[in-house]
Amino acid sequence: MKKLVLVLLLIGPMVFSQQNLQDRIYFSEALFEHLSDYNKKADLAYKHNDYEKGKQLFESFTSNKLEGSYMDNFKFKTLRKKEVQLYQFKKPVFLITYASWCIPGKGEIPALNELASQYGNQIDFVVLFWDKREKAKELSEQFSSKISVVYVDETQNQGAYVVKQLKHSLGLPTCFLLSGNKKIMDIRRSVFPSLQTSAETAYRENFIALETSITKNLINQQFEEVYAENVSLD
């Protein structure tokens, strides 16, 4: 009888964990189910030059259909050509996607570097380039050493549905704020100040927008999860 109780105690958490994993909706699944409908509505809005409507559709689509799903554990490479999986980052992740032909908004990179300096002990900052290694390495010089710069060369990518969807479905650049277990807490597009905006103002606009989202979705969320765990142990 004691052996049976011990076995149940050991396998119980495992079964519970497996059930939780089975109940998860992943980013690639949510996209597959809802992307076509979003594209039809967004294409119509942009066809009529209704950019405000397009922005509203994006925010509604990401907040209602994609946030709350879990990012797939896709692969990419470091600048040293080492293959890495997303889930190897154990902390919450701030992930932003770029490409060499997609110019970051004014003030965005300085804001990212400052945020990585302030929150790098609590969050993994990852910049993903859809590019060849040589180009990603060249562009990486703009970023702080506290930011992990990685790349996906699609000419060498042998599958990974989520990789294609990440690049082609939501446009570039796009920010994904992921909790420690890689649940998508927020999806946002970059801030693009006007060309007339001063460098300092553009930096502040980006910094405030990004820090607000980071604090709300990653820092406070992480605190709440730790607090809940401590309460349950008490």
TrEMBL record:
Highest rank taxon of the organism: Bacteria
InterPro entries per the UniProt record, alphabetical: AhpC/TSA, Thioredoxin-like_sf, Thioredoxin_domain
Listed GO MF terms: antioxidant activity; oxidoreductase activity
SUPFAM superfamilies attached to this UniProt entry: Thioredoxin-like
Pfam families referenced in this protein's UniProt entry, alphabetically: AhpC-TSA
Gene3D superfamilies according to UniProt: Glutaredoxin
Domain Thioredoxin: 65-213
Name of the featured protein: Redoxin domain-containing protein
Annotated organism of origin: Christiangramia oceanisediminis
Phylogenetic classification of the source organism: Bacteria, Pseudomonadati, Bacteroidota, Flavobacteriia, Flavobacteriales
